[in-house]
Design goal:
There is one protein chain. This protein is an alpha/beta fold and 337 residues long. It has a domain at 2-183 and 233-263 and 303-315: Rossmann fold, CATH 3.40.50. Helix content is 43%, strand content 18%. It contains 12 helices and 14 strands. The protein has helices at residues 11-22, 39-48, 62-71, 86-91, 93-114, 148-166, 200-209, 236-253, 269-280, 304-310, 318-331, 333-336, and strands at 2-6, 26-31, 53-56, 76-79, 118-124, 171-177, 179-181, 215-218, 230-231, 233-235, 256-261, 267-268, 286-289, 298-299. It has a 7-stranded parallel β-sheet, with helices on both faces. A 3-stranded mixed β-sheet has the order 12-9-14. Helix 2 (39-48) links the parallel strand 2 (26-31) and strand 3. The longest helix is centred in the N-terminal third of the chain and has 22 residues, at 93-114. The model has no long low-confidence stretch (mean pLDDT 95).
Length: 337
């Protein structure tokens, strides 16, 4: 297949591109480089042995989208483009609704015009809101996300359901990510946030490297194993494989489907810190501060549905995730200094 990945030079997009190229597909990367780097394209080519086509641009640019679709025979779209900082979305919600929601509407409109038949959307576990019980399954009632970022994911999901009902020839997979971490074992691609990291593991790596003095742990009074928040962490390579499996399923069976992408188990913040210190042999100083508004005590994925339907299970554990993250950080430290 010839596959367009929006946000294709980002953390998850770059690893998914490698997985698809190594599986024999052709890949086009569309990215505005607002939170990624152009050199990722060359690194994807170095790992996979194949050069993806790169188009710099924004999904809100309808003329550009129409040009991309008209010049390339695109069989499938994996939609990952979007802003993703919870805190930033709370400070500037209008920016997030414009980029994520309006951009997705523009993209889907272009997809329908071009007659593309397969569409995969990168959603988030934030659509579950504050879950009443764990694990959360695809049948769990959706809650109200705690941030404008999460709301954009929820609204896009609803939009896609309506679009697929009106256009049954368009097959759609909605993939709800839990907490992607790790990096390619080559050390060539990984999570490379612009500015202050928003996620736990990149922040831990920054502290371990000495770039930041300490990690801030947001609350130790949750009803969890050690009082800190518990999350489901998944290796980005497992996540990438999940996208390929979803595309294969859509091509074979069509329709609209929703799957969780997680491991089915959770780790607390303190467990992540202690595992990192043990496997990477680096101390991570931290300080405990108040809870963040909107954080939930614990959440992890129910994975029975994706295991049964896609024959997919995350295979990499937390130690491998953290070792790969640290390897990537050490190999690319100079780029962030």
């Amino acid at each position: 297949m010839n596959i367009l990945i929006t946000g294709g030079t980002g953390f998850i997009g770059s690893h998914t591109a490698v997985d698809l190229l190594q599986a024999g597909h052709s890949v086009i990367l569309l990215d505005n480089i607002c939170n990624s780097h152009r050199e990722v394209v060359a690194r994807i080519a170095e790992i996979s042995g194949k050069v993806p086509l790169f188009v710099e641009g924004d999904i809100r640019d309808r003329k550009l989208l129409d040009l991309v679709f008209s010049r390339n025979s695109i069989d499938a779209v994996i939609h990952m483009a979007g802003l993703k900082s919870v805190a930033e979305s709370a400070a500037a919600p209008e920016t997030y609704y414009d980029s994520n929601l309006s951009g997705s509407v523009t993209l889907v409109s272009a997809v329908l015009k071009a007659g593309v038949k397969l569409f995969v959307f990168s959603s988030s576990a934030t659509v579950y809101g504050v879950p009443r019980a764990v694990p959360v399954t695809e049948d769990t009632l959706l809650g109200r996300p705690s941030s404008p970022y999460g709301m954009t994911k929820l609204f896009i999901e609803e939009m896609l359901r309506d679009v697929q009902q009106a256009n049954p020839s368009l097959s759609i997979a909605i993939l709800r990510y839990f907490n992607p971490v790790g990096a390619h074992p080559s050390g060539l691609i990984g999570e490379h946030p612009v500015g202050t990291p928003n996620n736990l593991v990149p922040y831990i790596c920054d502290v371990a490297l000495g770039r930041r003095p300490e990690l801030k742990v947001f609350g130790t009074d949750y009803p969890t194993i050690d009082g800190t928040g518990v999350r489901d962490y998944i290796h980005v390579l497992d996540l990438a494989e999940g996208h390929r499996r979803a595309l294969d399923f859509l091509e074979a069976k069509g329709g609209l489907h929703t799957w969780n992408l997680g491991t089915g188990s959770g780790f607390s913040v303190f467990e992540v810190i202690s595992t990192f210190e043990r496997v990477c042999q680096v101390r991570v100083p931290y300080t405990v501060i108040d809870r963040r508004k909107g954080d939930v005590a614990e959440v992890w994925a129910g994975t029975d549905k994706i295991r049964a339907e896609l024959d997919w299970t995350a295979s990499r554990g937390l130690p491998e995730m953290l070792r790969d993250s640290w390897r990537w950080t050490l190999a690319n430290a100079a780029q962030r200094d």
